[in-house]
Amino acid sequence: MSKDPDLSINIGKLKLHNPLVLASGVLGTSASLLYRAARSGAGAVTAKSCGPEARAGHPNPVMVEWEGGLLNAIGLTNPGAKEEVALLKETKRQLAATGIPLFASIFAGTPEEFGLVAGIIAEADPDLIEVNISCPNVRGDFGTPFAADEHSAALVTRAVKEAVGITPIAVKLAPNVPNIGRIAAAVVNAGADAITAINTMPGMVIDAEACQPVLTNRTGGISGPALKPIALRCVAEIAKTVDVPIIGTGGVITGMDAIEMILAGAKAVGVGSAYWYRGPEAFRLIIEEMKAFMIDHDIQSLEDIRGKAVRR
Fold first, then answer.
1. 95-134 tens-digit pLDDT
2. Domain containing residue 139
3. Residue 279 falls within a domain, yes or no?
4. The total number of structural domains that make up the chain
């Protein structure tokens, strides 16, 4: 290969230097932490999900490592949409010289609330708004996630799109549904510009000595290596169904994991648990490993292999 492989991608009109996106909920609680992730190699960064009002989240313990990955039930801790605007504006100020896009993330209890929160957050002018309709560990607070069926998912998408106008939105889908491709099609038809696939998978870890679940919330969301095969399957199904950018998220720890997401059809790759396993150098290491794979296989651009593993 005569020159370094090209890792840049586009999500709509957004240009990313590389496909790695800091996933929501990881280091997204302050402008300085988001800036740190950007400086450490992320192609884009996502703030933690915010809702209509401030939430304290669930009481500890809220996370546990097990042999297949991590289980967390943070409980959507956030300062509320109006306070989040200040955080996003300060983050955009710090990121201005880096060229790294900032994604916001929102959640709510009704389609109308989603529209309200989206309208508030749009005041901060994020580069993209991720619509979290799939958090698995707050069902007791919000009921069945909107990602569970296409009608509910479309209602939320439409409400958000009407509220934000030209700001692009990505809808974050759940893995534990009968047909994720059908739900992806519904949100795209309702106005989604991209899909984030996937959120964590509901699970439980039990302490046999204590005869009770480890997490205070009892259940939580599975992330890390155990989630990757599920995420790959979901990305592949969505890529066969819709023609919008997919941010493939779930179990990406190494450069090979990221390459597999691209091969399944993802345009960008969400990175979260890698911070737990590899520390603040995670983005740099994943990028180096992706480049090494591309050089070894004479691949010049990620577009050359996107979806290649699932083409027929």
1. 999 999 999 999 999 999 999 999 999 999 999 999 999 9
2. 9-310
3. yes
4. 1
- Token pair of 135, please? 């958090």
In a domain, 1, yes or no: no
C-alpha 264/C-alpha 208 separation (Å) is: 38
- Kindly state whether residue 3 falls inside one of the protein's structural domains: no
d(CA 135, CA 132): 7
Residue 271 belongs to a domain with what CATH number? Answer: 3.20.20.70
211 is catalytic: no
Angle at 15 between CA 13 and CA 19, to 5 degrees: 120
> Is the previous residue joined to 198 through a cis bond, with omega within 30 degrees of 0?
yes
Contact 18, 7 (CB under 8 A): yes
| Predicted confidence (pLDDT) per residue in 28-86, tens digit | 789 999 999 999 999 999 999 999 999 888 999 999 999 999 999 998 889 999 999 99
Residue type, 113: E
Instruction: Reduce the DSSP state of residue 120 to 3 states and report it.
Output: helix
